[in-house]
Amino acid sequence: MSGFGNEHVSEDPRCPGALPEGQNNPQVCPYGLYAEQLSGSAFTCPRPTNKRSWLYRILPSVCHKPFEPLEEGHLTHDWDEVEPDPNQLRWKPFEIPKAPQNKMDFVSGLHTLCGAGEPRGRNGIAIHIFVCNTSMLNRCLYNSDGDFLIGDKGSCSSQPEFGKMLVEPNEICVIQQGMRFSVEVFGETRGYILEVYGAHFELPDLGPIALASLSLSQEPMAWPTLATSWCLFAWYEDRQVPRGYTVISKYQGKLFAAQQAFSPFNVVAWHGNYTPYKYHLEKFMVINSVAFDHAVSSGAGQGKASALWVPYQRNPS
User: Fold this and answer.
1) Which among 299, 293, 287 has a CA at the least distance from the CA of 222?
2) For the chain, what are the domain ranges?
3) 294 counts as catalytic
4) Which of 8, 111, 200, 294 is labelled catalytic?
């Protein structure tokens, strides 16, 4: 399932026919599933800019206790906390604590570096660093403020509601506003996050050069492009969590937590154009075909990256 912003359809092979035919929200969904629409744009947006996906899940996502403030991480959107400084600045890498001493997962290891604007006005960006040494166990996060573009420099996997996703060290992934996800790590991990408020990542309009440059959305192609991205195959877990599953919301720059008794990754099928995706940076043509040819002929980037995140496969063999 490739192509930036394309329409995709997926259902878990364990439940054939889970996607309703000819309807988005039938009175009775197959297998008794619940239909929910995840919107990435206002419903009044023109068709070409409308972003939405329909998810068919075992239990509704609203079945949780009320949210309460969560004092974790080091997030902020108050850019006036530090006085402006035109001098050159540097900072040391954030230390990753040893797991036996201090377990730190993706959420508790978030640190805001800088930004502009603020989420309430739906305009601006923020740059974060994350460091972690343990997986998110019975915890997930969703961002109510904007999209996360994540660049990982360690070894971890992500599980959005749409399916499982693994990302290699030289790849980036985008998890859009409102999508729940959990991060599993296989050792000490750090990375960067670019967050955008009120907008989504999209390809630029490149005018007359678009035909042979970065804005095509087909694959396979003679020249890989920025639009060569991958979505996920549906995968669900029907799992009760008697001790409680924690759903964390990033809302107006702060964290809130709610408890529920089941795993939120219970989406059996979905269809739409509002999905998480990833992209391999080695396929990006930085300047022109000369630079790309040199990278290929010299073997740059080949065989250097160990497996970090790859699309979830229906048949692992």
Assistant:
1) 293
2) 65-264+274-297
3) yes
4) 294
Per-residue pLDDT reduced to its tens digit, 237-260: 999 999 999 999 999 999 999 999
Q: Residue 42: what pLDDT? A: 86
Reduced to 3 states, what is the DSSP secondary structure of residue 277?
Answer: strand
Evaluate whether 95 touches 131 at the Cβ level (below 8 Å).
yes
Query: Is 257 within 8 Å of 247 (Cβ atoms)?
Result: yes
Residue written as tokens 């959107």? 77
Provide the residue type at 290 as one letter. Answer: V
What pLDDT digit, counting tens, does each position of 142-186 carry?
A: 999 999 999 877 666 788 899 988 877 788 889 999 999 999 888
Tokens, residue 179? 């999508």
What is the identity of the amino acid at 38? L
Query: Residue 220: beta bridge partners?
Result: none
- Mapped onto helix, strand or coil, the DSSP state of residue 125 is strand
DSSP H or E segment with residue 295: helix 289-297
Can you tell me which residue has the tokens 């035909």? Answer: 211
Query: Which of 233, 248, 246, 264 shows the shortest CA–CA distance to 164?
Result: 233
Measured CA to CA in angstroms, residue 308 lies from 9, 62, 134, 174 at distances of 25, 32, 15, 15
Pair type for strands 156-160 and 139-143? unpaired
d(CA 146, CA 253): 10
Which superfamily, per CATH, for 65-264+274-297?
A: Jelly Rolls (2.60.120.10)
Q: Of 311, 291, 285, 289, which is closest to residue 215 (Cα–Cα)? A: 285
